[in-house]
Design a protein that fits this description.
Elements: E1 2-4, E2 9-11, H1 12-25, H2 34-43, E3 54-55, E4 60-61, E5 71-72, E6 87-92, E7 97-98, E8 102-107, E9 113-118, E10 122-123, E11 142-146, E12 149-152, E13 158-162, E14 168-171, H3 184-187, H4 195-207, H5 211-224, H6 229-241, H7 245-258, H8 263-275, H9 279-292, H10 297-315, H11 320-330, E15 333-335, E16 341-343, E17 356-357, E18 361-366, E19 370-375, E20 384-389, E21 392-395, H12 396-400, H13 410-430, H14 435-439, H15 449-458, H16 463-473, E22 475-477, E23 490-493, E24 501-502, E25 509-514, E26 517-522, E27 531-534, H17 544-553, H18 561-568, H19 571-592, H20 600-616, H21 628-640, H22 644-658, H23 664-679, H24 683-702, H25 712-723, H26 725-733
Parallel strand pairs: 4-14, 5-6, 9-13, 24-27
Antiparallel strand pairs: 1-2, 3-10, 6-8, 6-11, 7-8, 8-9, 11-14, 12-13, 15-16, 17-20, 18-19, 19-27, 20-26, 21-23, 22-23, 25-26
The structure holds S-adenosylmethionine.
S-adenosylmethionine binds at residues 368-372, 442, 472-473, 498-499, 501-503, 554-556, 558.
Length: 737
């Protein structure tokens, strides 16, 4: 099985294994109660491997002799350190489950609880096979484990690991060796706490931003007093901090059932509804609340925010300048005490804006591609089709702890994929309400309709489905396009955009990211009934081989013009193209790019190369992207020898041929045209090209500019000031504004 990320394809085994391990041990902190940990462990039953195995013989030693002084307690274990000669005495406190290892919870006599992973205990086989059931090292079994290692699995998660089954000894109950050992959980009198004790304890955790532990305490209190509105309200706030909006909403509903006038519950319900994207209900709830609490500034603020979300959601109108500012602000990084880069704002550039879906598109079946987005009527160019907030996104520096500018190495790509798998599975664990949103995505598994219905009905964790859905639908974050002053990258899942199908060229839909918001617009007029297509891998950036290996992994046999052409080109043509490009890079370019003058023979050679390359694709002149760079160099060669007019005509020709593809090179070409025109003092012409450039930069973000209105240029320049400030300098030089 392969897991596909933005950058490349990586082997999924490690990704999946680490993700599951993290799911089972993540946030495994001493602050969670023993009961909570046992509860969480029970949930693994849903995802564990139920197959039967040949299990290693259980090692019982009645006459065990050990020096009790060499016993080590869990709290004395050191990460990455095998305590030689020492042994761990522990008691099993949960059922074992089989994942990549056999996992259970154990406690030591001091009452410390940790997760134990036993490796190499199982083999697949034919005879003597057993399932890992209640009887396997059952609860209460005393174990002595030698040669253990205490490990950080990934991202600071600890686990006790034993690799050799012979190191694990089951202590026979007749054995007197440990009779003197006192087990603190046996000794401890059950401390009776009341709901208020739990509330106070929860509040302490909340104050130290440990929301998971706070929820644990509040939940214990709620078990004792299910109608305790304060506890419900406190837990709702802790859920809000963890973005568990559905859980928060449920608590506020219960709180309001018992106390309909409770203001805190109403306030938090409003916030939860915003998070659940029920913008209208959120606005109504908060407007009602404000009526009762006129003058309360924090209610007013959140009410205004909900009104803004409702407006964005209803009209698809966004204040892009403000969103870009918010994005810059939220991507700020500072150094922590260890010198690592960390977010100043804890949540990274996740932006609080509404989703939007244009009424004129719908999901329908498309021949040979499954489902896809279809236009219900004619749609003009640069129409906003959708704004989608990430279902889950992981940013590069959340994964690595430090800021890295790209994730192009295997470790980077797999770490992001692993983190995303873990985060999404955890989200579904915590709020199964979201399962259908993920399970309905394309997953490449050939499940029958009934199987699908059954899985969605159960709303339980289906790890294979999650992994496959992610494999086919993950999207790499990229802000390069707009010069957004950030080196952050990442990986995420956006559910509605996952229904767009792909073409390497001629896509009619264009997307860009601001923070975790994905904006999707048409890039040309669309006719009724036409499929809306996005580009997963651009033919102007990725070679055919690169595209093919990626597309194969996600079951796409691309039938776009470019793939068809490249598939049909003979080996001979491909070889000739490679030779010509090699000649350009190794021989012509170094000569022509020298600072001084260019010899006419070099220009001739370059012209010959371009003509040859074009002739190889003469049936498809507009697909000859590989000549763009060469033509640009040729134009500069002419500039150097003083033939400005020739240079201009070459650049304009390139622009005309490739303008529909809006490749980044086209922007450079236009910039050159502007510069040459101003050099030639053709200011009107320079201004005309400046406007073309301005539109290319601004319209994909803001939508169609109303260029019949006098203010359009100023409006556009307000945006470029933030994303391409050099455009504003050019505007000043040309005296445009
Ligand atoms: C992100 S999903 C797109 C939505 C998907 N068609 C569905 O039914 O949910 C990606 C999957 O759609 C299919 N797909 C996308 N583009 C395609 C294309 N050009 N040709 C054939 N299948 C395509 C492939 O199965 C791919 O793995």
């Amino acid at each position: 099985m392969k897991y596909t990320t933005v950058i490349r394809t990586i082997d999924s085994f490690e990704v999946v294994q680490n993700a599951i391990l993290r799911l089972t041990v993540d946030n495994f902190s001493q602050v969670k109660s023993r009961e909570q940990l046992i509860d969480e462990h029970k949930r693994l039953d849903n995802i564990c491997d139920k197959k039967k195995y040949v299990v290693h013989n259980i090692n019982k030693q009645e006459n065990l002799t050990l020096n009790i002084q060499l016993r080590i307690s869990i709290s004395n274990l050191k990460v990455n350190n095998v305590p030689t000669g020492r042994f761990l005495l522990c008691r099993v406190i949960s059922k074992f489950v089989k994942l990549f290892a056999l996992l259970a919870l154990v406690e030591d006599p001091e009452g410390n609880v940790e997760r134990l992973a036993l490796y190499n205990w199982t083999k697949e086989g034919q005879s003597n096979i057993k399932s890992i059931d209640q009887l396997f090292l059952s609860i209460g079994t005393l174990l002595v484990i030698k040669n253990i290692s205490y490990e950080v699995a990934t991202s600071n998660i600890t686990i006790i690991r034993s690799n050799n089954p012979d190191d694990v000894i089951v202590v026979d109950h007749n054995n007197k060796l440990f009779d003197d050992v006192k087990w603190s959980t046996n000794e401890k009198k059950v401390e009776i706490k009341n709901a208020d004790d739990f509330r106070r304890c929860g509040n302490d955790y909340f104050a130290s931003s440990n929301y998971i532990a706070a929820i644990d305490k509040y939940s214990n209190g709620i078990k004792l007093e299910p109608q305790n509105v304060t506890l419900l309200n406190n837990r709702a706030e802790a859920y809000l901090r963890l973005y568990q909006f559905h859980n928060a909403f449920k608590d506020t509903e219960i709180a309001l059932m018992y106390d309909p006038n409770n203001l805190k519950a109403a306030y938090r319900k409003g916030k939860a509804l915003c998070g659940l994207k029920h913008y209208k209900d959120a606005t109504n709830t908060l407007q009602n609340l404000y009526q009762r609490m006129k003058g309360n500034t924090s209610i007013k603020q959140i009410m205004k925010h909900a009104e803004m979300l409702s407006y964005e959601n209803k009209n698809g109108k966004y204040d892009y300048l403000r969103i870009i500012d918010e994005f810059h602000e939220r991507s700020k990084i500072k150094k922590d005490s260890k010198g690592n880069d960390v977010w100043i704002y804890e949540t990274g550039p996740r932006l609080d804006h509404a989703e939007f879906l244009n009424d004129n598109i719908q999901i329908d079946l498309v021949e040979g591609k499954g489902r896809g987005w279809i236009a219900k009527c004619d749609i003009p160019e640069y129409t906003l089709l959708m704004v989608s907030k990430a279902f889950k996104v992981v940013f590069s520096n959340e994964v690595f702890g430090t800021m890295i500018s790209n994730t192009s190495n295997d470790k980077g790509a797999s770490s992001c994929a692993e983190e995303l798998t873990t985060c999404i599975t955890r989200k579904l664990f915590e709020e199964p309400y979201y399962c259908p949103e993920v399970y309905q995505l394309y997953n490449g598994l050939n499940l029958s309709r009934n199987e699908k219905i059954e899985i969605i009905r159960k709303n339980s964790i289906h790890i294979e489905l999650i992994i496959q859905a992610l494999m086919h639908n993950n999207i790499g974050l990229n802000y390069d396009e707009f010069n957004l002053k950030t080196e952050i990258t990442g990986l995420g899942l956006w559910t509605l955009p996952s229904f767009f199908n792909h073409a390497c060229i001629d896509e009619n839909v264009y997307n860009f990211f601001l923070g975790d918001l994905l904006f999707i617009r048409t890039n040309r007029p669309i006719s009724k009934g036409e499929e809306l297509i996005i580009n997963y891998r651009n033919a102007t950036t990725f070679s055919y081989e690169e595209r093919l290996s990626y597309l194969k992994c996600i079951n796409i046999d691309c039938q776009c013009r470019m793939c068809k052409l490249e598939r049909s080109e003979s080996q001979e043509i491909k070889l000739r193209m490679a030779q010509l490009l090699k000649a350009y890079h190794e021989s012509i370019y170094p000569k022509v790019s020298k600072p001084h003058s260019v010899e006419p023979s070099h220009i001739k050679e370059l012209e010959y190369l371009i003509a040859e390359l074009r002739s190889l694709r003469k049936e498809h002149p507009d697909l000859g992207f590989n000549t763009i760079e060469l033509s640009n160099t040729l134009a500069f060669a002419y500039l150097k020898i003083g033939n400005n007019k020739k240079a201009l005509s070459i650049l304009k020709e390139v622009y005309d041929l490739y303008k529909t593809f809006r490749v980044s090179e086209i922007r450079i070409i236009i910039l050159d045209i502007i510069i040459i025109n101003s050099k030639l003092k053709l200011f009107e012409e320079a201004k005309k090209w400046f406007d073309i450039m301005l539109k290319i930069l601004v319209e994909p973000i803001m939508g169609k500019l109303e260029d019949d209105k006098p203010e359009w240029r100023k409006e556009a320049l307000r945006l470029t000031e933030k994303i391409h400030p050099q455009m504003n300098s050019i505007a000043e030089t040309l005296n445009i504004v």
